[in-house]
Design goal:
The complex is a heterodimer. By secondary structure, chain A is an alpha/beta fold. Chain A contains 9 helices and 12 strands. Classes of the chains: A alpha/beta, B mainly alpha.
């Protein structure tokens, strides 16, 4: 299974957000989109999910996903937003069922939705209202909604931004499981140490273009952090061979 | 009990609540028919309803006066609340109701064109002039809104902004017509804008019934997609919902329901806002239950308002639009405040 993302251009009014950005062909595995604020990571993710107006092509095994009817595309692509709206009084379980049923009939949708909640360890939230959950709990529900259709490609926009350490680990373990099961998982992450620990590949986006891509070890360098993030940082290896990034100061060089 | 059993029980409980609302609507209809300035004996009224032999006067009062008014109240309440429910969901705004977007102002403008200037649709019987104008302008306002909205992507904020602009424009034109109207025409227009069931005819009730029969199945069919939209535009799209088409068709249904209702009985606010809110408190936001519950709550509310409009000042039939606002709003606030503190 190959996802090809080619020549994606997105404009917000006159502002060019993504400039003919192409990614190397992506196979199964966990790819992290990294980069500074306003680099275009989330926009790229939303363009791949066909949620942002764009030019360029997103093909899965030669099929242009942008030309597929929405329901068919939704069966292939799962999208987890950074935050679910806080104003809905739907209960968690029916919100996950709606994620399945919105695009058509789904036999035993209630059992499937409950199974995903159980797998993510949030079945205790099943009968809680969305507007009574914390931001982190809502984010986990967003993950359940993305997973419930069992999509081949999973797109996640800053999935850990509201999560505590335990939930972060639970979410990333699930993403790892999905990637190991042969799915293409693409997540926007700000925490580069997490990216180094969990990702198979990192693509660094800067100013609407692809800056660099490769394994975490290839990409996470002092030089990249200075050029792209404008920080003086050390990339060190600690116990169990894990990479950690220690930022010392803002970069003052040229 | 497993979580699945619990979820299915929840569904059964909501279905039961919807059925209870249907019974309440029937009871409210009956109560509305049984009340009125002519103090008919209860037994005679029921006998007339059941088609049994009763004095001719009773027969006429029940079948020609009370029944059309009561049925119209029920249907208009249902239509406005269903329109409000769909509108709140597709505009992602709990304050939305048919009148927020200028439907009532446009309808009132249409009515004013007929009453003040005598401009009506050609070839229609004169008795339909006001209603036909109101219907066409209300429908026209929403069509214009859709067109304007589409220019800017059709998002909810844009639609609400254009709707408010339309509302003010129609209201300003209405004021202009009021300014130049004769004293008679002005009185007639003011009465119309207060909302009244007094002039109800069976044909009018039939028209609202047909609109409801045409719109409701499509609304129910869209229930899961509308439920998904409660998690936001992007999320619904990622679930495979064509949100633009969903919104467009929902607004077509809202247009028909609201324009139909307002053209027949004038401006009745509150029901389109309160019906869905009460329904949401009762059955939640799963639109398979929320939509029918809204429709039935609207029917109950307006039916009770119709009864109250005959009882508040004995011997006087108050405009129903006034009654819904004066009696309904305090009850509605109490419900909301009660709900918040629980």
């Amino acid at each position: 299974m190959i996802l090809s993302v080619q020549g994606i251009t997105v404009r917000y009014g006159k502002r060019l957000v993504l400039d003919a950005l192409s990614l190397p062909d992506l196979g199964p595995g966990l790819t992290v989109l990294a980069g500074p604020n306003a680099a275009g990571k989330s926009t790229l993710l939303r363009a791949i999910a066909n949620l942002a107006a764009h030019s360029g092509s997103v093909m899965l095994d030669g099929v242009d996903l942008g030309r597929q009817p929405p329901a068919q595309r939704a069966a292939t692509l799962g999208f987890m937003p950074q935050a679910l709206p806080s104003g809905s009084s739907l209960i968690v379980l029916e919100s996950v069922i709606a994620a399945l049923r919105a695009s058509g009939e789904a036999p035993r949708a209630d059992a499937a939705a409950l199974a995903v909640l159980e797998r993510l360890g949030i079945e205790a939230l099943a009968f809680r209202r969305l507007d009574q959950l914390s931001g982190g709990q809502r984010q986990m529900v967003g993950l359940a909604q993305a997973l419930v259709r069992n999509p081949r490609v999973l797109l996640l926009d800053e999935p850990t931004s509201a999560l505590d350490l335990a939930y972060q680990t639970r979410l990333l373990t699930e993403l790892r499981r999905q990637a190991d099961a042969g799915r293409i998982v693409i997540a926007v992450l700000h925490d580069l140490s997490l990216a180094a620990q969990w990702a198979d590949r990192i693509a660094v986006i800067a100013d609407g273009r692809l800056h660099s891509t490769g394994t975490p070890a290839d990409v996470l360098t002092r030089d990249m952090l200075a050029r792209v993030y404008r920080v003086d940082a050390r990339v060190e290896t600690c116990g169990r061979g894990r990479t950690v990034i220690l930022v010392d100061a803002e970069y003052r060089g040229g | 009990m497993t979580a699945l059993d619990r979820y299915r029980n929840l569904g059964r409980r909501r279905a039961f609540l919807v059925a209870a609302l249907a019974l309440a609507a029937l009871a409210a209809l009956l109560l509305d028919i049984l009340t009125g300035p002519a103090s008919l004996p209860l037994a005679d009224t029921l006998a007339a309803l059941l088609g049994q032999e009763v004095p001719r006067g009773t027969q006429v009062i029940v079948w020609q006066v009370r029944l059309p008014v009561a049925v119209m109240a029920l249907l208009v309440g249902a239509a406005l609340a269903l329109a409000g429910a769909e509108m709140q969901t597709v505009l992602e705004n709990p304050l939305a109701e048919p009148f927020t977007l200028g439907v009532s102002s446009a309808a009132a403008l249409g009515a004013a064109l007929a009453i003040v200037l005598g401009v009506t649709v050609p070839f229609l019987p004169p008795t339909w002039g006001v209603s036909a104008n109101a219907f066409l302008l209300a429908l026209g306002a929403l069509a214009l809104l859709q067109m304007l909205g589409r220019l800017r992507g059709g998002g909810p904020e844009m639609l609400i902004l254009f709707g408010i602009a339309l509302n003010f424009t129609a209201a300003a034109l209405l004021s202009l017509l009021q300014f130049i109207a004769s004293a008679d025409a002005l009185q007639q227009l003011v009465f119309w804008t207060m909302g009244s069931l007094a002039a109800t005819r069976w044909e009018g009730a039939l028209m609202i019934a047909l609109i409801l029969v045409a719109c409701t199945p499509f609304a129910i069919r869209a229930a899961w997609r509308l439920t998904a939209l409660r998690m936001g535009e992007e999320q619904a799209r990622s679930f495979g919902v064509d949100t633009r088409s969903l919104r467009r068709w929902a607004l077509v249904r809202v247009s028909l329901l609201a324009a139909g209702a307002v053209s027949m009985v004038g401006v009745i606010g509150f029901v389109g806002l309160a019906g869905p809110h009460i329904a949401r408190m009762l059955v939640g936001e799963d639109h398979r239950f929320f939509l029918p519950a809204s429709l039935l709550t609207g029917a109950v509310v307006l039916s009770l308002a119709s009864t109250a409009s005959k009882l508040v000042v004995p011997g006087v039939l108050l405009p129903i639009g006034l009654v819904t606002s004066l009696i309904g709003l305090p009850i509605f606030f109490a419900l909301i405040l009660g709900g918040r503190t629980r």
